[in-house]
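Agenda item 2: protoporphyrin IX containing FE complex prediction
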Amino acid sequence: MALSSITKKLIMSISGLFLIVFMLLHMTINFFSVIDSFTGKYGAADGLFQAGCDFMALPIITIMVPVLAAGFIVHIVYALILTYGNYKARGTERYAVANKTKTESWAAKNMLVLGVVVLGIVAFHLNHFWADMQLAEWQGEHAANPYDLLNATFGNWIWVLVYLVWFAALGLHLCHGFWSAFQSIGLSNKVWEKRLMYIGYAVVAIIVLGFSAVAINACLHAYGILG
Ligand code: HEM
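Presented output:
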């Protein structure tokens, strides 16, 4: 049975909002490493970031991994289906209408490109962290020390730069995505349209600034600028 385009957009929205919740949780646990710097526990066995990683390794959380992976896959597959559908429907006339609403912003027009950049760097990111932690545990090995992985990745300024570009792409993708998700679900109306946009900007700022602080803080530790 072919799904209507509304149903497809609904699936995109719900999977997207689910991924935003993951992002907020992931950023919060990573941000524990910044708090560790203030409490003098960066790198310590009883550091907050270590505790956060131990919590994420609990079986009750680990069973969520396939759900998270499914969330990513559904979001990506439907992004491709919807983009292809739009392309077929509008053909070369895609941007012929001069409609300067929010949906026509640069981010809105480039959601697929931004998504590809975000996903492309996720592959490197999983290799930097997840492969030596969760995957290693699944293979019966010891998980690496998470502070060592922060040092290894952010001790190379090129990776710091790549990650910051990644967060910027993620931010642009989410800026449009957050607002658009509520629009598709049907919760946005004349009054809430503007409000949701500002709430979205606030959520995105928290995610982008939080992740950036983690990367820069880890870089300062790795280069010996912070103790
Ligand atoms: C400074 C930024 C970041 C740091 C330091 C960081 C750190 C980590 C760490 C330590 C893990 C392994 C967790 C474990 O195996 O227990 C991990 C996994 C993961 N990260 Fe990140 N992360 C960052 C940003 C991001 C962003 C922006 C995304 C998504 C766009 C992302 C997506 C993932 C995914 C999908 C996993 C695997 C699932 C999981 O185990 O939670 N990360 N990250």
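Discussion summary: Residues 5-88+109-222 form one domain.
Owner for follow-up: CH.
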